[in-house]
Amino acid sequence: xxxxxxxxxxxxxxxxxxxxxxxxxxxxxxxxxxxxxxxxxxxxxxxxxxxxxxxxxxxxxxxxxxxxxxxxxxxxxxxxxxxx
Length: 84
Description:
The protein is of the alpha+beta class. The protein has 1 helix and 3 strands. It is elongated and about 80 Å long.
């Protein structure tokens, strides 16, 4: 149940509404018309393409994506201490 911010296209008033359902009918509290535009949240920061790629690369590195794997390690050399 997110709190969404809307702007009325008729009277230009800005208001917040708690959305409980996806197809909920929403009307402006000032003029009661339903021609609305959903505004981005206050924490929204638009990024250009280079900033998006940089951000995605950083999150991928944090998750281990793109990490180099040491392929010189051979498990057969280290299995003598395991009983098979």
